[in-house]
Write a structure and sequence with these properties.
seven-stranded mixed β-sheet, 9 helices, 13 strands, globular
Amino acid sequence: MNSVFNLQSAQYKDKQKNRGRLLINCPDQPGIVATVSKYLFQYGANIIESNQYSTNHEGGSFFIRIEFECPNLQEKYKEIEQNFQVVANDFSMDWRLQLVSRLKRTAIFVSKELHCLREILLEWQNGDMMMEIPLVISNHEAAKELVESHKIPFYHIPATKENRQEAESQHLKLLEELEIDVIILARYMQILTPNFVSAQPNKIINIHHSFLPAFVGARPYDRAYERGVKIIGATSHYVTNDLDEGPIIEQDIRRVDHRDHVEDLKRTGRSIERSVLARAVKWHLEDRIIVHGNKTVVF
């Protein structure tokens, strides 16, 4: 793997060795913040950052993200995690506790267009996107030279309608063997099967080259041009089995006008796609996203 990133990774892990993140979603009720704060305090934890949101303080859903420092967290982590279940049961919580020093292991899927892949690799190499990248998978060989120049293993697995299940069985085997936590679809132009998606709930991040819910599916720039739109955009979302209908993480737009043809829209769109996908991936890596139904809360 990239030697520069290895050094950055080691420094990051050492600096963050005592930092944790706790994300909670539960019915809103009195005492949540006080109880959680008291629980962390008994382990000597100091809350560094806390963000919360309620859909309605009377009968709504409550969300909170807490980042904390705790002396000797590596040794205490299992005990903190196991004992917190008592608190979680009292408040009917969906929750997760993360060690900041444990970098998420990421698989990147890409086809022929490489602009989003380049952005991700640049952010990663610069140390601005802290994750491990054990592999890149593609149904074409266009990305091979770029990926291998970063000392990342590249897997060319052709995927078509005819061999999709066979290709995905290879994908799933690799993902399991390499203990992948999150999948980034960096313009991977294949529809994933229900079997593949169900195996990775809220772990597949896609970039769609349209400001959803407009122009779902293929050729959105062509359809946007035909419609004469005045803005175009891009949407990053978690993948579900409803095409381009998964929980939206991030979106952005840019103005266009009658002088812009399809290729102009595509060129402008690539810039938007890169930044939108990068932000969505960063937020996922930093545990800033809580999925609630078909929406997200992003702290």
